Amino acid sequence: MAVGEKQGKPPIVLPRTITVTVGVHGDAGAVTHGPANDTRPGAANDTGAVEKKPLTVADIATFNEFGTSRIPQRSFIRAWFDENQEFIAETLRSQLKLVIAGKLTAEKAGARIALACEGSMKQRIARGIPPPNAPSTIERKGSSKPLIDTGQLRNAIRGRAVFDEAGAELGTDVAAE
């Protein structure tokens, strides 16, 4: 029996794993990005001709995260993760302390961790990610800030917490003093 049960409180039940992801997820990534004439090669149709498909937010995210032959790498996910280890650890620590103290559910803590990471990643994009835009890009979009044209990519970034169904109890059979 856990301490909480002796005091009339249910034990703290934690999921076996909590996975927090931050990035362009599912439906947000499938949305068409920009004007309809921005296209990428698609699959060959029945006649063998390659059809063009509109660019999606996920396409734009991938091009910038990893770079292409014409677009320099501007990592907004991997570089954010590498640069924010201390922030991530402190966010995890602070939220898990609240869970252990019984002041917050694991689900709520996971959601708060995901939201904090999402906000931090969006702030990094707003500050600007090098290298700067090429003069031709600045002229076309009217801004020198990389990764921000319409704001669609930044707005598509979401933090998400996913919980394993199998849980584990956190507690002890030693009475609290």
Structure description:
It contains 8 helices and 6 strands; from the N terminus they run αββαββααααααββ. The protein is an alpha+beta fold. It has one domain. The strands form 3 sheets. The protein has a two-stranded antiparallel sheet. Mean pLDDT is 80; it is low at 1-6 and 167-177.
Order of helices and strands: HEEHEEHHHHHHEE
Average pLDDT taken over every residue: 80
Order of the strands making up the biggest sheet:
1-6
Low-confidence stretches: 1-6, 167-177
User: How does the helix and strand content classify structurally?
Assistant: alpha+beta
Whole-number total of structural domains:
1
Supply the number of helical segments: 8
The helicity comes to 40-55%
The shape is: elongated
Q: Could you tell me the radius of gyration in angstroms?
A: 22 Å
The percent range for strand residues is 15-25%
Distance between the termini: 16 Å
- Please report the total strand number as a whole number: 6
Q: Profile the largest sheet.
A: 2 strands, antiparallel
Q: What is the strand and helix layout of this fold?
A:
Blueprint: H1 3-6, E1 12-15, E2 18-24, H2 26-30, E3 39-44, E4 50-54, H3 57-66, H4 78-83, H5 85-100, H6 106-127, H7 135-141, H8 152-156, E5 157-163, E6 167-170
Antiparallel strand pairs: 1-6, 2-5, 3-4
Helix pairs in contact: 5-6
